Amino acid sequence: MKRILSQCRKELAQFQRDRFTLALAFLLPFISLIIFGFAIRLESKNIPLFVQDFDISPLSRAYTERLFATNQFEQINNI
């Protein structure tokens, strides 16, 4: 525990000497949080998708209808 406390004291002393390091230690994670929180969207929409239904059963048609009802996929009619 003594080693950890001495390391903490050393780092705090270094922060007092170099204010730029202190600013980077708090500013960079905050900027990253803002960028990942607001600027980057991980939601995808309107992905072109073609479904070839060989079964043509009510179950397979219901599955493809539910797939396209999510608004994540856009149905391609002609390929």
What does this structure look like?
There is one protein chain. The chain is rod-shaped, with a radius of gyration of 27 Å. It has a two-stranded parallel sheet with strand order 1-2. Helix 1 (about 1-15) packs across helix 2 (about 20-40). The model has no long low-confidence stretch (mean pLDDT about 90). The termini are far apart. It is built from 3 helices and 2 strands. The protein is mainly alpha-helical.
Question: What proportion strand?
Answer: 5-15%
Low-pLDDT sequence parts: none
**Count of individual helical segments:** 3
The total strand number stands at 2
**Anisotropy-based shape:** rod-shaped
Helix and strand content put the structural class at mainly alpha
- Main β-sheet, spatial strand arrangement: 1-2
Profile the largest sheet.
Answer: 2 strands, parallel
Helix content: 55-70%
Name the average pLDDT. 88
Order of helices and strands, N to C?
Answer: HHEHE
What is the subunit arrangement here?
A: single chain
Cα-atom Rg, whole angstroms? 27 Å
What gap, in angstroms, lies between the N and C termini? Answer: 67 Å
